[in-house]
Every structure is written in structure tokens, then in C-alpha cells.
């Protein structure tokens, strides 16, 4: 994963272990004060949230522990690789989009962070300016031209 992605994971883990865990514990305490726990929907919801939080913390701990930070090779700045920002031209709609190639755990398509393991990421790895890639998606095949790699 990228150094930026690793730092984001560590920050999220710290937040979840600290302020978020305390908030959830306070919600449970408040729900307990409402009486009979068998029929207390707020209590059951709070406990469910605690389980989700503990699961996310566990996932993040494993990811941080097993993470390998890969630095972008600067001497090969023209080839798309982990950490590259790639400016693409959608050849069908004549629209430009910028994506960043990241590890699977830090992927966030809404933010333009595309996993190397995704069909889009796999199609881009190793490509250079001027290359045309073909990406198969649920809506069909889309072609993109690589305009810039940084």
C-alpha cells in the first residue's frame, strides 16, 4: 500500500480505539439506564454498533500489521504503477478523469482511488502516456487513453 494509505489506516485505527470506542460505550451506558434490557431496542442497537466497531478495529489492526509500504519508483515516472496519478480520456464520452492507483485496502472509487487488483487498475498497470486501455465493466467495455502519469 502507499505511505498515504498506511497513514490513513493508522489514523482511523487510533480514532476508533479512542474517541469512537468511548462514544459507543457511553451510548451503551445510557441505553442500560432505560431499564429492562430484554425489550430495550436502544441497548441492542448500541451493542450491535459495538460489535461492528470491534470488527472494524480488528480488520484495521491486521491490515496495519501486515502492510507493506511501497514507494513509487521515481526513475520510472512515465509508467502507471502503485501510487501513480493517471489522467485519462474516456474515448466514448470525451471526458477526462484522474485516478490514483492504490492498494486494495485503500481503494475508494468515489475519491478516484482505484485498486491495483480491480479490472481498471489491472488494465492501467504498466501503461504509459498515449496507451489506450480497454476496461470491462458491468455496463460493457470502455476505452480510455492515458494522457498523463505522475
In terms of DSSP E residues, the strand content is 15-25%
CATH class of the largest domain reads Alpha Beta
What is the overall number of helices?
3
Number of domains: 2
How is the CATH topology of the largest domain named?
A: Chitinase A, domain 3
Whole-number mean pLDDT:
90
Over all CA atoms, what is the radius of gyration?
Answer: 21 Å
Overall outline? elongated
Query: Which series of helices and strands comes N to C?
Result: HHEEEHEE
CATH architecture of the largest domain: Roll
Mind telling me the CATH superfamily name of the largest domain?
Transcription elongation factor, GreA/GreB, C-terminal domain
Enumerate the spans where pLDDT stays under 50 for 5 or more consecutive residues: none
Structural class: alpha+beta
Amount of helix = 40-55%
Give the terminus-to-terminus CA distance. Answer: 17 Å
Give the total of beta strands.
Answer: 5
Quick one: biggest sheet? 5 strands, mixed
Biggest sheet, spatial arrangement of strands: 3-2-1-5-4
Write a concise keyword list for the protein shown above:
150 residues; 41% helix; 5 strands; Chitinase A, domain 3; alpha+beta; 3 helices; Helix Hairpins; five-stranded mixed sheet
Give your account of this protein's structure.
The chain is an alpha+beta fold. The chain has two domains: about 60 residues, Transcription elongation factor, GreA/GreB, N-terminal domain (Helix Hairpins), CATH 1.10.287.180; about 80 residues, Roll (Chitinase A, domain 3). About 40% of the residues lie in helices and about 20% in strands. The protein contains three helices and five strands; from the N terminus they run ααβββαββ. The chain has a five-stranded mixed sheet with strand order 3-2-1-5-4. Helix 1 packs antiparallel against helix 2. The radius of gyration is 21 Å and the shape is elongated. The protein starts with a helix and ends with a strand. The mean pLDDT is about 90.
Amino acid at each position: 500500500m502507499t505511505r498515504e494509505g498506511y497513514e490513513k489506516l493508522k489514523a482511523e485505527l487510533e480514532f476508533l480505539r479512542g474517541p469512537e470506542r468511548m462514544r459507543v460505550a457511553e451510548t451503551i451506558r445510557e441505553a442500560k439506564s432505560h431499564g429492562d434490557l430484554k425489550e430495550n431496542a436502544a441497548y441492542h442497537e448500541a451493542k450491535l454498533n459495538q460489535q461492528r466497531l470491534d470488527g472494524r478495529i480488528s480488520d484495521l489492526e491486521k491490515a496495519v500489521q501486515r502492510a507493506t509500504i511501497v514507494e513509487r519508483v521515481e526513475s520510472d515516472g512515465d509508467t502507471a504503477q502503485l501510487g501513480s496519478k493517471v489522467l485519462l480520456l474516456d474515448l466514448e464520452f470525451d471526458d477526462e478523469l484522474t485516478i490514483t492507483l492504490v492498494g486494495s485496502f485503500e481503494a475508494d472509487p468515489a475519491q478516484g482511488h482505484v485498486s491495483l487488483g480491480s479490472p481498471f487498475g489491472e488494465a492501467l498497470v504498466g501503461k504509459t502516456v498515449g496507451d489506450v486501455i480497454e476496461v470491462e465493466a458491468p455496463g460493457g467495455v470502455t476505452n480510455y487513453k492515458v494522457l498523463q502519469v505522475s
